[in-house]
Amino acid sequence: MFIHTYTFRQEVEEAFTFWGTEEGDLVHPADCMHELFEKMRSHRVNIDGNVSTVMFTTLVLEVSLNLLSSDRTTKNTRLLDYY
Asked: Is 26 left (phi over 0), alpha (psi -120 to 50) or beta?
């Protein structure tokens, strides 16, 4: 179990490091969250319901923001500073 936890943490850390780069900024936030959910699923990681709610709400906000203005994302706004 420890090996899987370490691997999951390492994969998530690498993903967030990549998403923080200029190249990672090109990745749509919804794709980032999908990748994160896939990592959690593949490693069978459970998360708190409150965290899941925030992630789902962020996806909904991302879709709404994209419908209103296709050149803006939650990554380049200060919308998530309140979380």
From this structure: alpha
Q: What is the pTM of this model?
A: 0.60
Tens digits of residue pLDDT in 14-70: 988 898 888 988 887 778 888 888 888 888 888 888 887 887 787 777 777 766 666
CB 74 within 8 A of CB 58: yes
Residues 6+ apart with CB under 8 A from 5: 43
Distance CA 27, CA 43 (A): 23
**For residues 58-67, b (16+ Cβ closer than 10 Å) or e, as one string?**
bbebbeebbe
Give the helix ranges, DSSP H, for 1-83.
2-19, 29-42, 49-68
